[in-house]
Each structure stands twice: as structure tokens, then as C-alpha cells.
Amino acid sequence: MSAELLRQLQAFKAKHNISQQPKHGKVSFLYDWREARSVEPQAIAEAALSCFQDLVAQDPSLEEFAGLFEVEKEGYKGRDFLTTEENDELNDTIEKLLMHLSKHLLTDQGQTCLELLLSRYDIQTYNMEALLLAGIPFHDSPVFARLTKIVKWGEDSQWIFLAKVRKTGEPLKRQHLVHMARTSSSLWRTLCDYTRKTLKRGIVNRPLLTTINMVFLEALAESHKFTFDLAPALFPLITTAIKKGSTDRQAFSLAVTMLIPLIASSSFTDGDLCSVLARAVKHAPLPAFSDVVDILALGLRFSARQGNFWVKVARELDARFDAHSEQVLEAIGKSRGWTLVLSGLVLPFCESSFLSAVTSSTWLLGASSAAALCVCDSAVAIIANGPEESHVNEILPQLYDNFPVAVSRCALKHKCVKEVEALLPGAHVLDAQLLRHLSTTSASAREEAISQLVDRESTTGGEAKAVAGLVVERLGVEPSHVIRKKILGAKWVWEAVSGEVKRVALEGLLRKLLPSRERITPKQYWEEVVAVDERIVEEVDAVLSLLAEEATPAVIAVKVMRGDTLEITTPVMPSSEETYPGGAAGAAALIEACVEADSGAPTAHEVLEAIESLGLDKSVDASVYAKMASATTEDGDVEKLAGLMINNPACKEMAKSAVKGTGKRPVLLSLAVRQHNLKAFRMYTDLVGPKANDSALFLASLLVLGSDGSSKHMRSFAQSAIVSRTKAPAASS
């Protein structure tokens, strides 16, 4: 070779980064090209067979590929010697095997099996895409980076974006894969189609599903257009994942995750949406059935609900109910969108047995008024506008017995009172005019409506509960004393409602009748706020009569304020989280009841803590302080008691008596220094008199003067105390 040609060849190799010594080794995953030349094919085959048998023990479905791992592959000379048909058949087998091996690629066994496939079947050339797809679940690992170095792709391949990974040997980062999936529709279709085939073949590959799920969610977060552009590739994958959901919970979760944004973005037609949802209802595992109900609600929320597409979904829902009634009912009750499912799917299209079970379900009976009204509105609308023969007709009496007010109002709204009444055993609904008058501004109209309602003592069943509920509900907002008295006097009303409803309504009325007042004792509150209005006294007496068997904090507080003598077996201290009739006066009444209790009374320390924390020092009756003074012995409690009594004008002399002894006086100085209590400071000087050499007072005065928290009056008083008790120096001769 001439020197000029040699120079040109060397320059070309340097420019294109070609090694001066050509690599003549074999392609290998486990070894570099030099080591691969020295490894015998027989050794690779034996090691691969052993590893393959280990994998078969873990996953018996791999057994069908045993022929590929025979140590002596009889008659096989290489891929180049196979016919086109033979190569196609081998490609299908290897691609299916790689789907199985995908989840094992991080293990030694999986990598050893892969080594045989490379050395014997040249999968880096003939099955390049299947090999890369098998490694996608581990794209951020060195294993995937190694795969990119041994495969071969063309310049127009969709995998060309992996060139940097091949060059640097660094794993493919998640954000790069997400970006490519979002911007390359062909790559996204390939990933979805590969995942769909994996699921369709019944291959469980959790790393793959997790990766595809994360790529989808992160790509969606980057661009809302993602669902519109790439939805066609998702539809077959979701359909397959749903179908396999009965045996693979993760596959079903993947489908649900992908469905949510597709439904919300209206990427489906109603026909396609209902087809997918029908499959979801049919194949969903029971533990995940509440997810299906949520998806149904979402579909109803964002679909046009036109045509009979939803009949297909209802048919599958009926079938699941027939097979698993309790689980299906429970799943509907747990869903946040159960009102949509009932209104848009169950009531219009499902069978009567399903409707009857739903109507009597505990979660519907315990639903809020708004939710019950929504369901009743849908049922009555079907009667008003739907076909003459409807399953709703059969369950309307049951629905009316549970929610008579809601059904009556909806019948009025849809102008079908006669049609609804024709379906009810009693042949009537609640009078619409009467319901209107309950919320009118005219007191006379309201009084007449209440009178008519409370006079219905013969009313029974659900209607009685509903009427009583309406009346009791009115009690809390009714401004008229006459109407409230009429409600309180209707004995059958209070017998018809539950104990909890009765207690809540009556205690609410007590809080309304007895507004909060500060710095007033329970006895004073009753005399100055309640007793001055005979109408309030009448209502309070009526409420307490209805709650005669109750011993709740609110009832006890009001009885103490009224001056009743109580026998309390389980005292209840007031709480900062509760609101009591009379406010602070009611809380102080509770403390008084606890102190007077025959058994279980709180300790003096607990009582003092409650008074201080709730700010009741000026609301507690003097009798409570008197009991505390005789029961308090601890220095800290004595100081706290003295501070509380000093702040209460009615207990000033009692406070003096409590600290009159020389041993207890220092608590006053402690209050003065620590709490900057001027009243305690003055009381101490009054008790000790004009004593000249009181070192404790002198020290306390200095501390007050040196404190930043002392008020101007405190400082002035401290200075006066020092000056008045300092002897003037004797005059010099």
C-alpha cells in the first residue's frame, strides 16, 4: 500500500472514530468482543439451559420455549440457512419468548438466556425491536444501555433517538422517554401495541405496566393535547387491559388510570365509551369494582348520553348484580359519583330487582337531603317524560316511603303530581302549597302550614317521619314564638323523629334562646336574661320537658342556671370545642354541676385549669370558689385560685381570706411578678400594712421595675411601695 493511500485511510479512521485494529469478535451481552471470541458456544448453551430451567421453575409458562435452549440444536445451521417461512415462524417464537423474559432481564438467569439468543439466533439483527421493547421496563438501568450497543437499527428507525445512549453508555432517563413518547406517535403506538400483545397473551409483566403507566401520566402532565393525539393507540390497549382485569388486577388499574383523562377530554365517542365501560363492568375484579363505578360516573358526567349506548352498560351491570349483589351495592355506595350512576344509568335502564335493592340500601337511606333529592328528581323525571312501562314505576312507592318530601317536591317541579299519585298506595303526595308555605315570609301562612302538619297525627310510615322531619327542621330557623310553641307541643312529631335528630334540634333551640354572655354567673344569667321574658321561660321549660331523660352537657347547664337540684352520676367538664347555651355562663354552670356532683367530681386542679383555660374567672359562681378554697393545698393551685378570685369582683374578700395567712401571702407577689397582676400587688400591700423592712416586697418591686412586661401603673405602684417603706437617713450633727 502506498504511503499516500495509507495516510488517507488513517485520516478517514480518525475522522470517523474507527479503531486502528478492527474488532472481529462476536456480538455478546455478557462479554466484550475480545472475551466473546474465547467462549465456546457449547458452554454458553449449557449455562443458558441451566438458567432457563431455573426460570421455568418460577414461571411454568416458559416451558413451551424449551426447544430453543437445547444444547445440541439438531439441524440448525444459522438464520441465513432458513427459508423465509422458517424465519418468520422463528421470529414469532422469539418475540413471544422475549415478552416472557422481559421481567427477568435484571437477573443473571435472564441475561444468560439472552446471551444464547444472541449467539445462536442473532436476535440483535432479526429481532431488534422486540429486544429493545423487552428492555423498556428497565430503560433507566445499565442493562438497557448495554442492549443499545449490540442491536442494529437503520437511519430512518424510530429508535434512532437511542444513539446517544449507545454512544455514552448512560441509561435512558425517564423524562427523555416521556418526551419521545409524547412527540413521536409511531413510538407511542409501538409501546402501546407491545403492551397490548403482552396482556393479550396472558403474560404478567408488572415492570412493563408500571413503566407504560408512568410514561402516560408524565406525558399527559407535560401536554393536555397528549390524549387527543395519541388516544387511537390507547383504545385497543385499554380494551385488552380491561378484558384481562379479571385475572390481572394491575392490568385493570392501568386501564382505569388511562381511561380517566380520555373520558374527561372527550376523546371517545359515546359508542366507543359505552363499549369500553361495558367491558369494564363485565371484567372488573370485585375488589376494584368501586373504581368502575367512579369511571361510570365520570363517563356519565362527560358524555352526551344520547342514543341507547348506555343500555349495553346497564345490561352488564345487571349481570354483575345478579352474580354479586352485595359487593356491587357496596361498591356503588362507596363511589363519590353514586348519584350520577343512579340517575343516569341504574334508574333509566336497570332491572327492577336492582332498583329495589338500591332503594332500600343503607347508604341511600342515610344520604344527605341534596343527594336524595337528586335521585328522586331523576326517578320522577322518568315518570314524567319516560316510557309508560318503566321499572321506576315499581319502586316509586318504596322511594316515596323513604323520601316523601323529595318525591313530592319533584312531582311539583315536573308537573306530574297526578301521574305520581296514581302509582302510590295512598294515592297522594304531600300538598305542594303546604310545602311552599313552610318557607314563606308570612308568619300567618307559616303558622297555618305548621298547624296542618302537626295535626296529622294519623300519618304513618315514611310520610310521618318526613312530616316530622320538616317540622323539626323548621324549629331551628323559625322566628315566631307562637309557631315554635306549636311545634314543641306536638307530641307525635317528637315520637316520629329519631333520638339523635330530636336532641340536636332541641339543643340547637336552647342555644338560640340563650345567647352567649360574658362575665355573668349562671344564676345572674337566668335572672337578667331569661326570667325577664316569660315566652323564653315557657320555651325553655318545654324543651327541658322533652329532654327530661337526657343528661347532656347542654341540658345540665340550663338546669343549673334555672336553679334545679341535680343528681349527677357522671360529671362532664366543659370543653373549648363545644358551644353551650348561655356561652360562658353555660360553661360555668357545667363546672358548678361538676363541683356539686356526689361522685366522680373532678379534682381542684382540674377545675382551676378549666376555669383558667376557658376564661371563666368572672363567670363562675362564688360557691365554686369557696369549695376550691377549702380543697386547694398545692402552692401552684393556691396561686392560680388566688389569681382567679382576685379577677372576680364578687370574690375579693374571699381571696383576701384565702391568702391572709403569712405562709400564703407570697403567692400574691408571685402573681404580681409573673402575671403582672396589679390587683394582687395592691392586696399584698394592704395585708402587710406600712411595714418598713419587708424584703420580699422590696425584691418583688425591683423585679417589677426591671420587667419589660410591666405596665406603667405597675411600675408606678412598685416605686411608691419602695419609697414609702424606705426610712429616711438620720440628720448629721
UniProtKB/TrEMBL annotation:
GO terms for biological process: maturation of SSU-rRNA from tricistronic rRNA transcript (SSU-rRNA, 5.8S rRNA, LSU-rRNA); positive regulation of transcription by RNA polymerase I. Signal peptide: none annotated. One of its GO terms (cellular component) is t-UTP complex. Keywords: Nucleus, Ribonucleoprotein, Ribosome biogenesis, rRNA processing. GO terms for molecular function: snoRNA binding. It is found in: Nucleus, Nucleolus. PANTHER family: BAP28, HEAT REPEAT-CONTAINING PROTEIN 1. Belongs to the HEATR1/UTP10 family. Involved in nucleolar processing of pre-18S ribosomal RNA. This is HEAT repeat-containing protein 1. It comes from Perkinsus olseni. The lineage of its organism: Eukaryota, Sar, Alveolata, Perkinsozoa, Perkinsea.
